[in-house]
Amino acid sequence: AFSVVSKLLSQRKLDLLDELVSAEVLQVLKEKISLLPENHRDALAAEVDAIMYTTEGDVRIYYDDDGRKFVSILMRFWYLNGANLPDEVPGETKVFQVVFGDESMKEKRHLLTANYEFQREFTEGAKPDWTITRIEHPRLLE
C-alpha cells in the first residue's frame, strides 16, 4: 500500500486515492501536492524493491463514542530514491553513491523516510478495509 500510494502521490493521481486514504488527509494532500516542486514530487515515489526497512511506530486499539472498535498502526518506511534533490537536505535524508555496472557510472540515491498510519474498524459487521489516516514525508511534504 505504501508503494502504491506514494507513487500515485508523486504522479498527482489523487483521484485514485479515494478508497485508500481518508477524506481529511486527501484534502490536505491536494493542497500540498499542488505546491511541491517537481523534484520533491519525484522523491515521494517509493518502488517496492527500493524499500530498505520498515518498522511499526505505534499500534493502538481504541473505541469511539458509539462503541465501535478500531485498530491504528503507524508505520515508518526508509526507501531509496533517485530524485534530483540537493545533497545537503537537513534532517531526514542521507545521500549514497550506488554503482550499477561500470564504476564510472555512479547513480546518486537518497535514503528518505515516510510515516503512514493505517486504520481499520474491527467492529462486528464492519468492512475489513484499511484506510490511511496520516501521510508524512518529512522535508518533502510539509
TrEMBL record:
A GO CC term attached to the entry: mitochondrial inner membrane
A Gene Ontology BP annotation from the UniProt entry: protein insertion into mitochondrial inner membrane from matrix
GO molecular-function terms, A-Z: ribosome binding
Name recorded for this polypeptide: MAIP1 protein
